[in-house]
Amino acid sequence: MTVQYRPLNPQFLRKTITFTGGAGAGAIGQITVATPTGHVRIIKILPVCTTLLDDASAGTVSLGRAASVAALIAATLGSTIDSGEYWLDGTPAATFLAIPAALKDFMCSTPITMDVLVAAIASGVLVFDIEYEPVNGGSLA
Fold this sequence. Notes:
The chain has about 140 residues and is mostly beta strands. It has strands spanning about 10-20, 30-35, 35-50, 60-65, 70-75, 105-110, 110-115, 125-140.
């Protein structure tokens, strides 16, 4: 018999990234999506685009952590991420989608970051809905 684990104390974090092309907002470099204090178990991360990302640049975005910038989502051309689409992999889509294994059920004690590469992204909005469970008093902000 298989017993499915249910989180005892699920928490939710919503982080909105508005791209302007400036430092920490679309310039080439890292953008912090979520920072854990202590340890947390990530139940799932759902990034969705609410405003079309800049389609005039060749800028790419990836999701991971400082030591592995594409640990969760590989570099994706920003201009392919349109309003209403989920960014779950290199091919964003708005249709019925399964959450990939990389975006659910993992332990986290380092910041989750998005990296802008190749060129700045001057406009657009990504919203990250993160469900997590504190481990030994950990939290996520």
